[in-house]
Amino acid sequence: MQEASMEQLWGSSHLGGNVAYIEAMYEAYLKDPNDVPEEWRSYFDRLPRSTETAPHDIPHSTIRENFILHAKNKDTNRPKAASAVSSDFDIKQVKVLDLINAYRVRGHQKADLDPLNLMEREDVPDLQLGYHGLSSADLDTVFQVGNLASGSDTAALSEIIDTLEKTYCTSVGAEYMHIVDTAEKEWIQQRLESVKSHPKYSGEVSKHILERLVAAEGLEKYLQSKYPGTKRFGLEGGESLIPLMDELIQRAGTYQVQEVVIGMAHRGRLNVLINTLGKSPSDLFDEFEGRAQYDSSGDVKYHQGFSSNVMTPGGEVHLALAFNPSHLEIVSPVVEGSVRARQDRRKDTVGTTVMPISIHGDAAFAGQGVVMETFQASQTRAYKTGGTVHVIINNQVGFTTSLREDARSTEYCTDVAKMVQAPIFHVNADDPEAVFFVTQLAADYRFEFKKDIVIDLICYRRRGHNEADEPSGTQPLMYDKIRSQKSTCELYANKLIAEGAIDKAGYDTLINEYRDALDNGHHVVKSLVREPNESMFVDWRPYLGHDWTAHHDTRIELKTLQNVANQLTEVPEGFVVQRQVQKIIEDRRKMTVGAMPINWGYAETMAYATLLHEGNPVRITGQDVGRGTFSHRHAVLHNQKDASRYIPLEKLATENVPFAIYDSFLSEEAVLAFEYGYATTQPGALVVWEAQFGDFANGAQVVIDQFITSGEHKWGRLCGLTMLLPHGYEGQGPEHSSARLERYLQLCAEHNIQVCLPTTPAQVFHMLRRQVIRPLRKPLVALTPKSLLRHKEAISTLEDLAEGSFQTVIDEIESIKPKDVKRIVLCSGKVYYDLLQARREREIDDVAIIRIEQLYPFPEDDLKAALKSYKNVQKVVWCQEEPMNQGAWYSSQHHMRRVVRSLKFASLDYELDYAGRDASASPAAGYMALHVEQQNKLIDDALVG
Question: Between 316 and 291, whose confidence is greater?
């Protein structure tokens, strides 16, 4: 419903000047919110709270700005201390207060939540009178109600129980007593108990809910009749989701929200696209009929994203439905990252302008670990977004798995949300008005407390997992009941007809009008903005249509470089830096004036610094990024006296060009998904995720497979995310050696990502700068070194940074004469320095070592140019530290062979040989002696064969 704006109500002549009328209305609201008009009740519900001012003391101006939602608790309302209990009545008074608390804690276990009435509900002793020493003889006795929001300080026990039963044991089951914050609990209690969880809605609201249900059901019936048996993962049984989404978005608009980002899996997705976001039905029908045009490989229609603008009472709101794969809950942290990027762009540090909505399946919500990870992130500095409204389409079955027996070990699928003390509202989807009320409550809670909240929409799945399934084969009793179950829309229409709110003809008109709109291919979202405000959109136009280029001008003036560097080595007066860190700062001062060679930490930091200086935001996260896992970065300094922090790079940041660096919580999957979502929504920034060790990215493989490497070709979604993955065989065993280079190379195609192994400080400097300065936006997977961070040979000069560029191939750099070279060793990464050392020690002068710094897109032209000067080559060898079945050998050898073949070396006996570890099931040896033995052998094989 599009409710009138409160500004208009205040401005109307018959309200604006009538203070007494407004105060009387507020007093009525405090006693019973159902006694005031819906617009005012909605307004009072959303106003900030105060606990210091009595309602009668409020002047007109203060009421307008700051209404009070809680009157002071009177002393007589407080439970008496146990020591003061002396009479039988006093004992029962305490028991009554215990009973009230029991309903708040366990009333949901008695609630009528299942539309199918199949949910097994255990007896709850706490809710029985006898459990509390009370009986039916006490029902007429008047007791103090404590802080029960019933509109009176006292009530008969029968009235108290009636209030509690209606509030907590009907179609809304509230779980909130696990919350430790008293203010939050009292806020929820007041909202629930004051209207007994069932506020009275006007006929206009009821008709609006019915119209949305007609739309939800109408689309599913239309698709079923037109495309029978075609997969669509329909919403039948859960149609209440559509009025829920409508009200959630409209209410968010009243809080001046500018954008809403939605994540959901496939169940009901087409319905949300058409009936919430306003996708054209004719476009959907084209997809069903195979007439849609695609510029890339595309994806199935129930994974597609969409965006639109709708009008709300608070103004225009941009809606974005995130693209998602079938990996269910993985889209949730992606949405959070996109929301955080939008909030950062709007300089919103609280979370008022952009709201995330995550729509889940019940089995996935309980079963997928990324749900826990996303909740864990929700209040951390790096990942908070001001609260997410979680909506669970609870079909009460997971594909074919019976939920209570096999799909989880807890009573509800939502129990994981308790870990962050999120309130949970279970609601019977066949009571649309209860769904509507819970939706309003959820939105208000989110904006009041800036925390996550969960709506468990308990419904059913009228058909199987998809429209081709026969579900009765595995759930015979459930589907026997479903076959005779009237739809939510029909049940609600019958209720309104019985109440006289609408007649049968009016109901039929709604059905016919919606079907006609579908037949004509018309948009069916009445609030859709046909000419949206484009300033709300993320502008990707500067990054579209660019062909792949390996080289780009990343130079910077030497004086500018030094000026920026000098700012980073200034430490505030009185800030006591740890001794080793102080040495790093002093060395960087020497590097800035050219008195020391530049190491990795300096070059990397200067890449971030110069990008900030040039107006590019930078965001870096990972489990140890402030210091750096190998203590090379020290971007965050810690005062040894008071533990305060100082971040030198922030000196180069501005309000419009922020710098953010956060040590993340111990997650890979949710964190990497978050950063992917952030990077897809902030094209002008350098967004970096660093794994503590490269193999830690294993825990986020679904993000890499389904989003990072394939998102552009499935959904046309550009992304410039940078992954830094420490890699290199240092004898640290199988888990801390390999970043699994082979996995990324196997995923490479169609110029989808970049895979680089920089071996010098200048290379990492220019690689990171290229990632932002070049308008092309492709994910960058950088396998970064460990031992090279302080290797005496892995150094650069100031001139290398100021005047150089990223080199995809680095030719032989020592005084090897090309005409003498009989053997060329091609390699990538840290093994180059091992080969170089061995060649020097053995005084070999007929072997050239050439580094391939970018393995994908493979730089065939650059490699060809490097090899051309060697005319007398007899053998070309690829050398790697990884086992033969891993690393770059299988994925990249055809590129190298093609280059070697094209040069037609006359004396070459074979196109390409291999030097490296033998094939192995494990990435690396766990015993140091074995590691050394293998390393020596591969060096020998490479240099002498």
Answer: 316
